[in-house]
Amino acid sequence: MSRPAPSPIYTLRGAGGPLNSLHFSCHGSDTPLLYSGSGKGAIHVWNLNSRRAEKIVEGHSGSSVIWVSTLQTTDTLISQGRDMQVCLWDLSEGRNEVVDSVWTGSVGFCQCSLLETSSGTFLLAFAGQQTEEIKIIELPSKSPVCTLMPDEKLGMVMCLQMWQPDSGRRPLLLAGYEDGSLLLWDVTQGSKLSQAKAHPETVMCLTLDTKRLRGISGSSDKKLSSWMMDSQNNLQLQDCVTLVNPGVSQLCIREDGKLLASAGWDHRVRIFGWKKLRPLAVLQYHADMVLSVAFSDHQDPRKRLLAAGSKDQRISLWSIYNEEANSG
């Protein structure tokens, strides 16, 4: 590497538990925010200007919060806990009220996926009560859309991502399973489009570049597996990246499609050029497993941040490769 690995520009402390999920909301507001979900059941709303928690909300009865997100068009926060509940929060005008909830029945760690449709409603995908089951409902009506269940035994669904390929086209969903398989689903038809065995071990995480229809998944082993979808919606395995140490909790591709970040069980965050999967940096700060990574959605590229949340109860914030560097 041509330059030494950077240090975090600052850290956020006081979450009071492992940081399972991070979500930025820096778009169109004077106050850039970072939402975090902790293993102790608290959701912190961090003001990135003051670098302090602006609000702390608890709505999962002390159960671990495994996913947080926001609805883009409203002041609504959505959170998922190990209490089998997905909660919708009204955070407008100083409020912090749970206005609705969805019971998932799932005891696993699979994070939900949220998709805003063209009609202004939302689709929510989550692991269901049965081992391999994925349920998709429409919000706010909570009307069921479909249940996705593979024909064969693949073990628990571990991770999923839903997206709409082009305007007017049907939503698709990609899921990773306990046996190392990836399945691509047509949400509207409730049918499987293709399948690939990406890992010998459990698929722990996946992320998809929806513009290029190319994605990458991580496992409990030492490999990241990249794959793509062809014009017929067939999953095709591509390159593998071999890591120094096994175990990846989460993967995240920056919005401009230039960088990939991985959250490692070995306490490190690794940065790769997304185009060629070239290793660019190893970020060492945390004293325990890194559980979550997220890139900010700042409109000004120079202000873009990477956040990493760890089992050590700290969030590190990094400013990396924001200049127009070649990050192949």
UniProtKB/TrEMBL annotation:
Sequence ranges of the WD repeats: 172-195, 283-328
Domain of life: Eukaryota
Keyword annotations from UniProtKB, A to Z: Repeat, WD repeat
PROSITE patterns according to UniProt: WD_REPEATS_2, WD_REPEATS_REGION
Database matches in SMART domains: WD40 (SM00320)
Tagged with keyword Oxidoreductase: no
Keyword Repeat: yes
Protein name per its UniProtKB record: Guanine nucleotide binding protein (G protein), beta polypeptide 1-like
Source organism: Mastacembelus armatus
Organism lineage string: Eukaryota, Metazoa, Chordata, Craniata, Vertebrata
